[in-house]
Design goal:
Layout lengths: L1 E8 L6 H6 L5 E3 L20 H17 L1 H4 L6 E6 L3 H15 L17 H9 L6 E4 L5 H14 L5 E8 L3 H10 L4 E3 L1 E8 L6 E11 L5 H13 L4 E4 L5 H10 L8 E4 L1 H4 L5 H13 L2 E7 L3 E10 L7
Parallel strand pairs: 2-6, 3-4, 3-5, 9-10, 9-11
Antiparallel strand pairs: 1-7, 1-8, 5-7, 8-12, 11-12
Helix pairs in contact: 2-5
Length: 320
């Protein structure tokens, strides 16, 4: 599967170079002066959540980047897949605040659509006139990569020809409250990253493998067993990991003791990405695109779904 377009809306200080160098983030890093009108003119977007507008904006960038490779496809053969985590709770908070603060008489019907789990992919389809399948994946740090995996399956099964895949986090009041209850010192990134994929071989990056599996508290070593299989094959130049959970130290310890890892460029993104949920995997992805070689991405949840993703980045310059 090949990447034909990339779009992003991120804080200026968050880019492939900052991630590779391990630059630390603190607090909530937000895109500066974000305004959806700079990306697209469409009536009614102001009533949507921040996450929805961030996703729509990054999709605009990705479509422009893909150009004719995207525009040649019919709307019914295009799919939209979004990876997100806490954004539906932000939408519900927006909608219900009027009820709590006044009465139900003041509830805005314009805000109701944002309470639906599939609202981001649905709105993206509406704004860009896409009539193919759209879906939202919520699976913690794996949300973006799981959405990417779902999109490749739809293309491989000939349901669609091209897919827009977005990872987004709005980090509004309700999301930050949740993060603060789990980690006292919040370190997270607000933004959206979009890739457009199809089978066309004329692209600047290819997705060679997406392998997903699950682990539980008592069998965390499963992550290492899967990573060890890839390390023995030695078919990649770079390794990117770091999901800001207890699995990071497990992976770090394995890499320190592995002779195979000495010939591999290893990047731990835990400090530079923080707890960025759905964005975590896609921030690793845009970093891999700039490395211009084969890169193995390891993304994990504290407990549950994990994934190993192999990217082969080629020659086209990517502005990240």
């Amino acid at each position: 599967m090949n990447i034909i377009g990339v779009g992003k809306v991120l804080p200026l200080k968050v880019n492939a170079d900052s991630i590779k160098s391990g630059m630390k983030i603190n607090g909530v890093s937000e895109p500066e002066d974000f305004d959806i009108k700079k990306y697209i003119k469409y009536k009614g977007l102001r009533s949507l959540t921040k996450a929805t507008n961030l996703a729509i904006a990054s999709i605009s960038d990705a479509i422009n980047d893909a150009g004719v490779k995207y525009n040649q496809h019919r709307p019914e053969r295009i799919g939209v897949f979004v990876g997100s985590t806490l954004n539906p709770t932000d939408g519900a908070l927006h909608f219900m605040s009027d009820v709590y603060e006044t009465t139900a008489d003041f509830v805005s019907p314009l805000k109701f659509s944002s309470t639906v789990l599939n609202n981001i992919s649905g709105w993206a389809s509406i704004v860009y006139g896409i009539t193919g399948v759209n879906s939202t994946v919520i699976s913690g740090n794996l949300s973006g990569i799981d959405a990417l995996k779902m999109a490749t399956e739809y293309i491989n099964n000939n349901v669609i020809d091209v897919a827009i895949v977005t990872a987004v986090e709005g980090n509004e009041e309700n999301s930050i409250y949740h993060l603060g209850n789990n980690i006292h010192n919040v370190k997270t990134i607000t933004g959206a990253v979009t890739v457009i994929i199809e089978k066309n071989e004329d692209s600047y990056a290819s997705i060679e493998k997406i392998y997903s599996f699950q682990h539980y508290e008592e069998n965390r070593e499963k992550i290492i067993l899967k990573l060890e299989e890839e390390m023995k094959n030695k078919q990649f130049n770079n390794l990117i990991y770091g999901s800001s959970n207890n699995n990071d130290e497990l992976i770090s310890a394995y890499l320190r003791n592995s002779m195979v890892s000495q010939d591999i460029n290893i990047i731990n993104t835990a400090e530079s990405i923080g707890t960025s949920n759905a964005l975590s995997g896609f921030l690793k992805l845009i970093t891999a695109l700039e490395l211009k070689e084969k890169t193995l991405i390891v993304e994990t949840n504290e407990i549950g779904t994990d994934s190993i993703l192999k990217i082969n980045s080629k020659s086209k310059e990517v502005s990240l």
